[in-house]
Amino acid sequence: xxxxxxxxxxxxxxxxxxxxxxxxxxxxxxxxxxxxxxxxxxxxxxxxxxxxxxxxxxxxxxxxxxxxxxxxxxxxxxxxxxxxxxxxxxxxxxxxxxxxxxxxxxxxxxxxxxxxxxxxxxxxxxxxxxxxxxxxxxxxxxxxxxxxxxxxxxxxxxxxxxxxxxxxxxxxxxxxxxxxxxxxxxxxxxxxxxxxxxxxxxxxxxxxxxxxxxxxxxxxxxxxxxxxxxxxxxxxxxxxxxxxxxxxxxxxxxxxxxxxxxxx
Length: 264
Description:
The protein has 264 residues and is mainly alpha-helical. It has helices spanning 2-20, 25-35, 40-64, 70-94, 109-130, 146-163, 168-179, 183-203, 213-233, 239-263; strands at 98-102, 105-108. Helix 1 (2-20) crosses helix 9 and helix 3 (40-64) crosses helix 9 (213-233). The longest helix is centred in the N-terminal third of the chain and has 25 residues, at 40-64.
């Protein structure tokens, strides 16, 4: 039963991306770990492929509307690509299975990943609940603060590599504040960056992880189906109205993960 629910929720990942332009990737790891019983390290690898493929499909509609700034995507993405690939290829395999102990409580690699992911969920939920969108002047000239953009790309790439989340809630404000992109173009550009860096990060896992391609392609296919459903539903349901509710849900999920992993 939990396996059936897990596959069904694959479409929810895509629906979320289609409706509110993000958030779907934050659901992927809990679904894989808790419902489909896949270990966290392998789940982060699967999450990169699922998130990357679904975001790539989602970015096509923004490309058709001219809402992707390719120069910005390249400037931001290059350090992010390097960080996520090196993280998956070298850092993750190098992390020891047993990190440290506090008394009789052992913190292992899987627990560390899930706790870090829960903290990322808390940040994402705060971003969605407060909905403090940075303001961008539609007529302002674009600017490129290369050191800050590169630093942001490195941070987001490393974070993506460790927990398998796309990091759109970090990328979009950076594009608006550091480059002055209009919000819609920031969302479209962010989706393309997430797609590319997630798929490149997944390449770093090839040879390090035993990939169940049949499962991965089926799950990803359902997620991609969901993004088409979500995009269609935007005609009837304003995505922004759902964002705060989804943020509260993500907050509850983060608390659940922390309680389950640390206390139970």
